[in-house]
């Protein structure tokens, strides 16, 4: 591989590695947990992640059990070991090594109790945000000359499927990669959030307005609390699975 290409790959990888641990406002993840009891099965906890991506002006909902997230992390650790042992895989191995360093809750033999659930909510929230950045980094790496493109794309596809990212996210990312503007979304048609009844003009700096696929808009913080109880639109009862950040 030419030295110039190696240098470019090294610089790109360094930037992508730092992005995995970046604590900024580009990606927001809110986490709730609910204990589920089914006949004939041991009780288990389902974690609901409300993901807001300001880069693509999209948001969606992800529901996973701890065991599912643990299994994905185990797969990534196995792939990291394979990449470390394979020549030419250093850039991808570095990304996976950085991902392995992200805080992750340990396994427990006992049933979930409030303390375990509380700690897992906090740590899984950061892990999901890092997963989103890992997919973005692998997608970028797969387009670099001299990089392990196929394996990087495999990692990106695995994480994409696991995160259940809506097609709208990929569409907006494609627009950005082509230098085009994001799809425009109109401002809220209502003057106030239907949940808290506060006007959208009074929006604080740390809150945004989310639009459901049905077209209704709400404060992000209000909608997150609502979705913790019911996974439907508060107004029309349509299923709430994601949407866009209202302009």
UniProtKB/TrEMBL annotation:
Origin species: Saprolegnia diclina (strain VS20)
Top-level taxon of origin: Eukaryota
Claim: ATP-binding is one of the keywords in the record: no
A GO MF label: phosphatidylinositol binding
PANTHER family associated with the record: RING FINGER AND PROTEASE ASSOCIATED DOMAIN-CONTAINING
Residue ranges occupied by any RING-type domain in the UniProt entry: 193-237
Span of domain PX: 25-169
UniProt keyword annotations, A-Z: Metal-binding, Zinc, Zinc-finger
Taxonomic lineage from the root: Eukaryota, Sar, Stramenopiles, Oomycota, Saprolegniomycetes
Gene Ontology biological process terms in this record: ubiquitin-dependent protein catabolic process
Record-given protein name: RING-type domain-containing protein
């Amino acid at each position: 591989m030419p030295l110039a290409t190696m240098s470019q790959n090294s610089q790109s990888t360094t930037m992508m590695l730092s992005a995995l641990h970046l604590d900024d406002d580009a990606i927001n993840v809110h986490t709730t947990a609910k204990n589920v009891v089914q006949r004939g099965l041991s009780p288990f906890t389902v974690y609901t992640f409300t993901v807001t991506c300001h880069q693509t002006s999209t948001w969606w909902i992800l529901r996973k059990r701890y065991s599912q997230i643990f299994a994905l992390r185990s797969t990534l650790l196995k792939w990291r070991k394979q990449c470390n042992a394979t020549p030419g895989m250093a850039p991808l191995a570095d990304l996976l090594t950085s991902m392995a360093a992200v805080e992750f809750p340990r396994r427990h033999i006992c049933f979930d109790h409030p303390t375990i659930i509380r700690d897992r909510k906090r740590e899984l929230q950061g892990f999901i945000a890092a997963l989103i950045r890992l997919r973005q980094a692998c997608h970028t790496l797969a387009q670099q000359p001299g990089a392990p493109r196929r394996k990087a794309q495999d990692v990106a596809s695995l994480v994409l499927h696991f995160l259940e990212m809506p097609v709208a996210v990929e569409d907006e990312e494609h627009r950005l990669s082509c230098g085009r503007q994001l799809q425009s979304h109109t401002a809220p048609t209502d003057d106030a959030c239907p949940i808290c009844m506060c006007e959208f003009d009074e929006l604080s700096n740390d809150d945004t307005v989310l639009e459901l696929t049905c077209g209704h808009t709400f404060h992000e913080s209000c909608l997150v609390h609502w979705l913790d109880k019911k996974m439907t639109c508060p107004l029309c009862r349509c299923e709430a699975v994601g949407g866009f950040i209202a302009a």
